[in-house]
């Protein structure tokens, strides 16, 4: 057991690569010899090679003139190409925009916000807030009411929000729906 532990802790020897093997690998991966590109001049017609040589010597303006002349002579139509596929996505987003506007108009969830309250009805309002908000005691409900304007409940359906608003307004509070 002691030998296995010492064998694990002992420094390991690194095998050395012979220098000639490195040289031979370097020669194998050398970039000094140029490979022929696909469609290179060895397989191409000499007439086409001369045309490519002439085109590669043109300036950008001359190349643009060449392209427009080829389009007119060969009767090639201009096609509006979408850049990176953004045009179809933009059209879909534009078509979906009216639907989203309609959804915004039909709000389904409301927040009931206590704006202010009548001082005479403060005690009744505190008790009602204690009953509405789960988990708070009378002291927290008092601080909540005195800290108005505050949101009483969020994410309520319209019917429940209207009912809560009516209850709080009957107690003497000014309430708004958001």
From TrEMBL:
SUPFAM superfamilies: ClpS-like, Ribosomal protein L7/12, oligomerisation (N-terminal) domain. Keywords: Ribonucleoprotein, Ribosomal protein. GO terms for biological process: translation. Residues 110-178 form the Large ribosomal subunit protein bL12 C-terminal domain. GO terms for molecular function: mRNA binding; structural constituent of ribosome. Residues 47-96 form the Large ribosomal subunit protein bL12 oligomerization domain. InterPro entries: Ribosomal_bL12 (IPR000206), Ribosomal_bL12_C (IPR013823), Ribosomal_bL12_C/ClpS-like (IPR014719), Ribosomal_bL12_oligo (IPR008932), Ribosomal_bL12_oligo_N_sf (IPR036235). One of its GO terms (cellular component) is mitochondrial nucleoid. Belongs to the bacterial ribosomal protein bL12 family. This is ClpS-like protein.
